[in-house]
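hi!! sorry for the late reply, been swamped w classes. u asked for the two structures so here they r. pasted raw, havent cleaned anything up. first the sequence of the first protein and right below it the tokens
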Amino acid sequence: MPYSYLETAEAFKSFYTFLASLPYIPASALQHAPSTGWPSITDNAFAPLGKTPEVLELLRHLPYIEGHDWNIAYDTKVIRYNEGWVKDFLEQGEPFEYQSLKPFHCDDIPAHVIPLTSGGNYGSWLMCDTIEGTITDYVTMGSPAEGQSWREHPTIPIKDFLDSWKCKYIELEWMATLDDGDIALAGALKEAELVKLRGIYRDCGWPSNFRRDECFEKLMARTNRSVEARLQESTAKLLEKRRLKAASAKEEKQT
């Protein structure tokens, strides 16, 4: 299927709307572009990026997620080209350091490719190719051997890629939690904890009759218990440290 910026924007809109059905990102945080596109994304304003007209047309029509730095996958945040620090940086007229908008070790990104997410070291940099109509899932810490291109990472059609991520949530391989605003991944948590999380979702009707608010409350209660347990553990360690210190001081005094 040939690339279309409108179909790509619609695919992301569908994916973000799905994410808003989870007990995590509120629907009110989704920003949908006007029919004519985001007025702040102009050719002149974004000239420092050195991107093609097709890239800018895509950025103008993409939806974005407002406010909190929401993760849409593990340690993976949407780059908000319509406002926020990118827009402010460009408007200030400072020399644009593109390093902050691309993964490490990626100096070969062509003008028709644009990162749509920021993944730091461990998350996903979704590299959108506006000629091929594909997304490359680039993870810095799993980067190819030196001298190889970021293209060595998984690269598939845009809609197929987003559908694959949606499936990970549906199958509870990935789950939105309230732990530091992150996404729980199979393999990233102990199996017992994953079983508890999956149980919460399924008890709330996941996936066909999901009760979002009920799940949110249960996840919040779980988070509060987790925080309380960590505080109790920290307090116990501190008291034990003080006890040992006092015992040691008493022993030295007696000798």
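now the second protein. again sequence first, tokens right under
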Amino acid sequence: MDRLPLEITHVIIQHFRHCRESIASLRLVCKSFAAVGLYYFIPEVHLLFKSSSFQFLKEVSEHPVLSKQVESVLFEADSVIHYSSFKEWKNNIISSDPSSLREREETQLPSRASSDRERRALCRAFRKAIEAPRTTYSKSRLKAAYEHYKEYVADQSRIRDQGYNQDLLTGVMRQLPNLKSLSLSMHHCFTPGDWKKRLAFSNGLSVASGDAYQVAECGVPQLRCLLLSALHACVRIRNLACGSVNWAFFKQDDEIFGDLKLAIRDLSGLDMYVTTRNEDNDWEDENPQLEVCASYLRESCRIEEFVTSAPHLNRLSMNFEGNNEFLPARLCDIVGEFKWVSLTYTAFTEIDAAENDLIAFYSRHAQTLKEIVLSCVNLYDGRWPTLLQRARKTLNLSKATICGDITSDQECYCLDLPPEINGNKKSAIGVALESYLIVGGDGPLLDLYDMIEELERPSWDNDSLASADEDE
């Protein structure tokens, strides 16, 4: 294998560039594979909220070859959930066995169509996955795990006291010449199927999730640390993805906020998932922060200042957490009247918008915009039929996605049906709307009510026939 031309070796290994484990195995084949594989070994460093993980990142940055291959850093900055006593911790522990972790994660809640027997079986499986450590581990094993847990809590506390290792991160970024992307993921926002974080704290039979019961709001100091480190290291970040970050991130003092805007001035892609919920009452139905958040964003213009400080965006995705009665941000509060000259993709989730504002935004970017996403958007002024018709005339799209509840003062259309009803498929109405925005047609959107009746009539007629047969 050492006789293969280097070009072919590069082609072979590049095919596995997204799988670090496969490249590690390939590097064992021969000397040439080992040398070439090193160049593709760590394109992204997965940083956890743990001192050992920061040390690993530092060692990578000091390596003469690996440091030049790192293009992105993903920071999963979740804190270990804090428990005040051994008893409280014991009542909330989870298994450190990977198979048990997956079993707990993959156990599905009963659906409406489940029989009583299926419901009982699913409940038993879920209870078994949760309670296994409490009922099967010895006292000595539980005590040892509790000591590990306390070490994790103390370690994270030290990192917070050191400003989330901002000085270390600044030094590291200076030694990563090809660093282009930063991601901050809270609550598995960008890592839904990744087990690194779960396994990293498994010796303490604990889980890291969010930032509950901390002084700072979820993700705020972590994102600030990442961006200021990049700024001080003179790194020109091209892509930033962050979520779920509390809206308090936009309430920084003027000097720090000015530095944060400087840090993202070279961005070409921005993805933000903004939460409005206080994690201490995360399970409560009411969300008192919603109206406070909305009022602040409208009065301060902070979110517009932040987003428009990146004038070279070609991708903009802004996602918020609202509820059925209240949405925290308006389109005009996010984009104002700004124009990005190369914007090709936009996504907005759970926002308020006026029909004229949305059309004006699309008109400003009609020459470049090729893909749009609207999810759970409410029109506080205007109607959806006319908006979609105007959007169709304005834009020349290659892809469109409309999902969730799209509403206005007089309309409410649910484009997402429950999986057990619709077989995990898109609703017919949603598909028709997306098709209309891309290829046009005779205008089925002259009245969405007529469209709903046309698309749903077959199922209604079948239900009527079935009822008639039962009556007979």
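hope this helps!! also noticed smth abt the second:
The first strand starts at residue 44 and ends at 48.
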